[in-house]
Specification:
With 358 residues, the chain is α+β, with helices and mostly antiparallel strands. It has two domains: 214 residues; 130 residues, no CATH class. The protein is built from 13 helices and 15 strands. Strand 8 and strand 9 form a beta hairpin. Helix 12 packs antiparallel against helix 13. The longest helix has 18 residues.
């Protein structure tokens, strides 16, 4: 029996799991924690939109990899035999409709609502606001995205609370015969109760047969480099060593704050060096989530902070109002605060204290 096992009184027992109350509960879990998906090749995904109109329906989630490859994710609960068939038909139909789009038309059409909600004007901008580790190469992203759209080379992700032998055979077959253009992941989620704490367990079911056989040309093939992640703040400090004036004062202030946060139990401090070497991020992350409440940026010698509302809601919900008041803005997913004040840093310190006490 697969699942989570706990040891009590010297005996191992299977932890109890519960059903999702609704499809929306599973949908929300995935959208707010997209990094939980155990996908083949472990790509980083950036959510572009929810309920995106494609053809005669609405794709549950449309995302993109750092490489520019589009990702279509469909969510279903396996409470009826039809659900396991419907999820395959739907995700394939969305892929068929998406093929052939150009980047500009995709932004002005299916993704126009999402762009407006996030106050962005381009798909690149929307993805980069979520790019904590600076993995996206802004110079090649849109060209790579266009190549993927033109050739219909997508990742399809099917997300359910349960699978079946029949569904797994269908996925394995599709993965084999479409290996030149598609990567298909079948993910199941279960929620377990472990000593009064709910634990989400995502599991990848389908084999990936396309990783070693996809052949690409042009700009998408060139996009293979990733951000370099290092421990501590040293690389970030070195990135602004030659900067003077007001920006230098802000950088010094931010680093001093981050080092203090990094000393908290349950927080780790990393620096990500961007692929174009002009962008650096300092990442005070909650170790259990591998995500931070904020990211500190050096973007072409300009300092600023970006906020991650999903992490706040999950780990420091009681601090949101104080941080928004100090920042003078409403926290959303990856939005930016350009003014760094002592009041804001103190509010963020309190937020990290709340997050590490959970």
């Amino acid at each position: 029996m697969s699942g989570i096992w706990t040891k009590t009184d010297g005996k191992w027992r299977a932890a109890s799991s519960r059903d999702f109350e609704s499809e929306k509960e599973l949908h929300d879990l995935v959208e707010e924690n997209i990094g939980m998906l155990p996908l083949a090749g472990s790509p980083r995904l950036f959510v572009l939109g929810r309920e995106v109109p494609l053809g005669g329906g609405y794709a549950d989630l449309l995302a993109v990899e750092a490489s520019g490859r589009p990702v279509i994710a469909e969510v279903k609960l396996a409470r009826s035999p039809e659900a396991k068939r419907a999820i395959v038909a739907q995700v394939i139909s969305y892929a068929a409709f998406l093929q052939g789009y150009d980047v500009e038309s995709l932004a002005k059409g299916p993704l126009s609502k999402s762009l407006a909600e996030q106050d962005q004007v381009s798909i690149l901008g929307m993805a980069m606001t979520q790019d904590q580790e600076d993995e996206i190469d802004s110079e090649t992203f849109e060209a790579a995205l266009q190549e993927y759209l033109t050739n219909g080379m997508f990742r399809l992700v099917l997300i359910m609370d349960d699978s079946s032998v029949e569904l797994e055979r269908v996925i394995a077959y599709l993965d084999a015969v479409t290996k030149q253009s598609l990567t298909i992941d079948l993910i199941t989620f279960r929620i377990y109760d472990v000593n009064g704490t709910e634990v989400a367990m995502p599991q990848r079911i389908s084999p990936d047969l396309s990783l070693t056989s996809v052949s690409m040309t042009g700009s998408a093939a060139k996009r293979t480099s990733k951000a370099i992640l290092s421990d501590g703040p040293d690389a970030f400090i070195a990135s602004f060593a030659d900067i003077e004036g007001d920006n230098r004062q802000v950088f010094d202030q931010l680093v001093k704050w981050a080092i203090e946060i990094g000393k908290m139990q349950g927080v780790k401090l990393n620096t990500a060096t961007g692929v174009n070497r002009n962008r650096f991020t300092l990442l005070p992350r909650l170790a259990t989530d591998n995500a931070g409440l904020v990211t500190i940026w050096n973007d072409n010698s300009k300092p600023y902070i970006s906020f991650w509302r999903g992490v706040f809601e999950r780990r420091a919900p009681n601090s949101i109002e104080a941080v928004e008041t100090a920042a003078g803005l409403k926290i959303s997913h990856g939005n930016v605060g350009n003014e760094v004040t002592p009041a804001l840093l103190e509010a963020l310190k309190s937020a990290y204290r709340e997050a590490t006490e959970i």
